[in-house]
Amino acid sequence: MNKETTSKAIIGAKALVALAVLSAAIYWVTGLSSPTKNYVSMPTIIQEAEKIPPPPNAALIEKADNHKTSAALVSSRYKTSLSSGQVFEHYRSNLAQAGWRHTKSSNSLIDEYCKGALRAEIEFNPSMQFYTFSIIWRLRVTTECES
Questions:
Q1: Does residue 38 have a pLDDT over 80?
Q2: Other CB atoms closer than 10 Å to residue 90's CB: what's the count?
Q3: pTM over 0.90, yes/no
């Protein structure tokens, strides 16, 4: 290759890199900096989860949180000697006080709630005697509270 051909190839490569950087910047500015109407930030989801105390005698086993562009989850798993009914009643009372609405559940071991764009679930595992309390947000999923 001669110098002129090499120079043109370098200029072309630089133009492609500049176009890729510009495209990424436009995507980020339009997609992430202007969230949709039902966007809920991770700090808000964590605050909502912290408003709801576990029942007495429930021992925390594990806490987890995960946030992506279109979904977020905060969950806590507890070991307990309480029955599923006692756990569900505790959360039903505390979630209602915090403005959550009970929704229909498709399973007798899962109790579900909604508040705006958020969903809360209490999933009970009777064989292991633990339950998981989760608050979930999904960008493209409408809760009963939003519809």
A1: no
A2: 19
A3: no
